[in-house]
Design a protein that fits this description.
The protein is an alpha/beta fold. 37% of the residues lie in helices and 19% in strands. The protein has helices at residues 12-23, 52-60, 66-74, 79-86, 116-121, 123-147, 165-175, 184-190, 200-204, 209-219, 233-250, 265-278, 294-302, 314-317, 420-431, 453-467, and strands spanning 30-37, 47-48, 93-96, 102-103, 110-115, 152-155, 180-181, 225-227, 257-260, 285-288, 309-312, 327-334, 337-338, 355-361, 367-374, 382-384, 392-394, 400-402, 405-409, 412-413, 448-451.
């Protein structure tokens, strides 16, 4: 799925700069930009890279129709520039880490090459798509890690999302490890499992709770999940669910689950489990919702709450407690000449030139660390901490993978566009290679990301040149 009419899905200054390059005769100069982020959200230890396929498909659909060009003409853009835009197509190259990959700060996980105008023009779109989906995929991954592989985790976030962001939030959540969604729109378009039960209004619409439960079970005998906390969870909700479970069993069906949506979830789930077990329905699952996130789920798990299914909404789709990923898009070369952005904060100084990423492994196949090096470099003996260069790691005996692969060549997509299930499976396999100390909710271990000696030396030369 791509964003419709994406030509003006951008910030105004992208267009003013594009026109400036065109009017200055600079638009044909070759350029390269890097996408990376500086700080891991949620005080976590990793980020899940998401949104790549959406970005590639959308870039392919950037065209300026009469509607867009007439608008820009009214805004005061030059007729010559608008004539140029009428024939615009992205014809550049993009290299990217695979979608679903585990990534870390300050490594260029996506590189865009092309003429200066086209590489600049896609900046806002790129940041919008990658930053949001990577943020939500990361949040979803943390929640799934907290819940554990044996638990089902569902996206309930559409009604609490920031507008249409809920569409891509569902996609990202599935990449991060969620098992399904209540969001029918996204389920249809992305081919992911959809599901849901009832709201309290269903129960309230009938004269009594038992009639509400029986009617629902009549219509959905093989997919009945009963919401048991409308009136009195343990006094009527669970007992009525047990009655319906018995009636379904007599007819050759079974109650799928009950859902708790309020109160002390640990206490109510234990009591409900006991009541259902005593009645002979130990196979009925317990689902829980109500402002859940990775920390609340961790707490419930630590209390041995017998919850099988977690419905997570608001705190997933809003990225609670980190509302944005600070991904940036920075110029790294013009006409193959390395470029550098300087900052008073050394950690914000960019890395010049066209680069690639090597991921080094431990002997057991887990991730050891990532090295950023120039595109024309090969074997590395060591990598340096980019902020504290005296800190270095020897790499000679370690196996490595090359993470960046070409995904667009001369404007054409040259990578396979995978279903969400395959991206999610890849994400899971990569997360399994990340050692547990990096997945801790509190004070996770800091993953090694270093730069090559040659890259460090080039950066330092440019620093002296620009400060001279």
């Amino acid at each position: 799925m791509y964003i419709d009419n994406p030509a003006t899905y951008t910030d105004y200054y992208e267009l003013t700069m594009a026109q400036g390059y065109f009017l200055s005769g600079m638009h044909h100069k070759t350029a390269s930009f890097d996408y990376f982020f500086r700080k891991i959200p949620f005080n976590g230890g990793y980020v899940i890279f998401a949104g790549v396929q959406e970005l590639l498909e959308t870039i392919k659909h950037i065209t300026f129709s009469d509607e867009e060009t007439n608008y820009l003409l009214r805004e005061g853009f030059s007729k010559e520039f608008i004539e140029y835009l009428k024939a615009f197509e992205f014809k550049g190259n993009i290299y990217s880490v695979p979608e679903g990959e585990v990534i870390f700060p300050n490594e260029p996980v996506l590189r865009v090459e092309g003429n200066l105008l086209e590489t600049q023009l896609i900046e806002t779109l790129l940041l919008n798509v990658l930053n949001f989906q990577s943020l939500i995929a990361t949040k979803a991954s943390r929640i799934k890690v907290a819940a554990g592989e044996s638990s089902v985790v569902l996206d309930f976030g559409l009604r609490r999302s920031q507008g249409l962001g809920g569409i891509h939030a569902t996609r990202a959540a599935m990449i991060g490890g969620f098992d399904g969604t209540s969001n029918v729109y996204s389920a249809q378009r992305f081919g992911v499992p959809a599901g849901g039960t009832m709201a309290h209004s269903w129960v309230q619409s009938f004269d009594d709770e038992l009639t509400a439960f029986r009617t629902y079970a009549k219509h959905y005998p093989d997919d009945t999940v009963l919401l048991v906390d409308t009136y009195d969870t343990l006094g009527s909700g669970v007992p009525n669910a047990i009655i319906v479970a018995g009636e379904l069993k007599e007819k050759g069906h079974k109650l799928k689950a009950i859902r708790l949506d309020s109160g002390d979830l640990a206490y109510f789930s234990r009591k409900a489990r006991q009541l259902m077990d005593d009645a002979g329905f130990s196979d009925v699952k317990i689902a829980a919702s109500n402002q859940l996130d990775e920390r609340i789920i961790t707490s419930l798990k630590s209390q041995d709450a017998p919850i099988d299914i977690f419905g997570v909404g608001t705190r997933l789709v809003t990225g609670h407690t980190s509302p944005a990923l600070d991904g940036v898009y920075k110029l790294s070369s013009i006409e193959d000449e390395p470029k550098l952005k300087i900052s008073e904060n050394i950690e914000k100084i960019t890395l010049p030139g066209k680069k690639k990423i090597y991921r080094y492994m431990n002997q057991d196949g887990t991730f050891y660390g990532d090295a950023v090096l120039f595109e024309d470099e090969n074997v590395l003996e060591r990598m340096h901490n980019p902020v504290f260069p005296a800190q270095k790691s020897d790499l000679n005996a370690r196996e490595f993978e090359v993470l960046l692969q070409q995904v667009i060549q001369n404007g054409e997509i040259v990578t396979s566009l995978l279903p969400i299930s395959e991206i999610a499976a890849y994400c899971k396999s990569r997360l399994n290679k990340l050692q547990s100390e990096y997945k801790r909710l509190d004070y996770p271990h800091i993953y090694k990301v270093g730069i090559s000696t040659k890259l460090m030396e080039k950066r330092d030369v440019l620093l002296k040149l620009y400060k001279a």
